[in-house]
Write a structure and sequence with these properties.
This protein is an alpha+beta fold. The protein has 2 domains: 41-183, no CATH class; 202-376, no CATH class. It has helices at residues 9-37, 185-188, 273-281, 289-295, 311-319, and strands at residues 41-43, 56-58, 68-80, 83-94, 103-110, 129-134, 137-140, 147-152, 155-160, 172-179, 202-210, 221-226, 255-256, 331-337, 342-346, 348-349, 352-353, 369-370, 374-376. Strands 1-10-5-6-7 form a 5-stranded antiparallel beta sheet, with no helix packed on it. It is elongated and about 70 Å long.
Length: 377
Amino acid sequence: MSILNFAPEHEDKKARSWVLVFVLLAVGIGAFYLKTTLAANVSINNGLSVEFGQGVSATASCSGSSILTLTPNSTFTNTGGSTGSFYFKSLTVSGIPSSCNGQDFNISAYDSNTGSAPLALFNGSSTIAAVWDNGGSFQGGHGFIGSTVSTSNGTFTVTFNTPVALASTVSKLTLQSLNHAAGDCLTENICAIGDTGPGGGVVFYSGAAFSETGATCGANCHYLEMAPTGWGNNKPSSLNGSCGGSSGTATADPYICPLSGTLINTSTSFGSGFANTQTLSASADSTSGIYLCTHYAGTDSSAGQWFLPSGDELAALWNSSLNTKLGNFFYWSSSVSSTSGIEYGFPNSGSTFQGYSNPYSGGYANNPHAIRAIRAF
């Protein structure tokens, strides 16, 4: 005997349609929450989403719809004999958009057991690796000492100098983008205009990584500091009154000729001041400003790292908000034309800056003016 179905057929189809809608909605909501909660989290090892050496997609709050790629890497450390372990060594993050400029990225790792307690990554106990997106160029953020940051276009790699977390224990990585936290200029090289630099000078330029040829920071310089007021007070007696100038006072810059030897063509470009100074020092004697710059040691015994700025670097000092602290802005640079015998300098004529395209054109030999040593870091 058959069972009769008195329900209209179209009602059954309608019910099934509503079930389908609810299922799709549930899947959509689940996918939304999955994307939201895991957007800055990457599961590895136990999570099975990605292994060391493989990239995985993720997002951060500053990246918007842009997809980042996170690639964790491990390294084997031999502890003696045939024993050793793999450690979480570095993380590469790529695809970072310009919307993250000025943000900090904080990276942490977790195991599968404790969950909420981050693992130590470096320095024995440091649980957060901070990377600062400084205008599209990446450098260590607050507390980064003990790690190293390398940078390229939209990409950084943070490497732990002495890694602590065993790769086998790392189950999840988190990547957060936060407002930049100011670091320490003296110890972490995270500086703002007006900060005291590592050599005791005053930071007057801050920006994306640039090359200062020959300087210690090489192609990864971010700042320029100028020697503090009175930096030349302990200059050699041979510089007193040299080249017809005065010996200066406790509050004045040395007022001397920058050169005393053979003129050599040098560059006006930004990042060439160190190389200019080193080139000119080969023919400059101890009565010159070049000599004074190269022998200035700052407060951290950094003799040999200070130099006379190039034309463009001196222009950066003029354009800095700190130029008002320098009084009558009339300084020599290390940019020289051997054909015309001119050392390019920058005078302050009232409120008008006269750049090196229209430089002070007096010969250097009998024209002493102020000099201020600078340093790149």
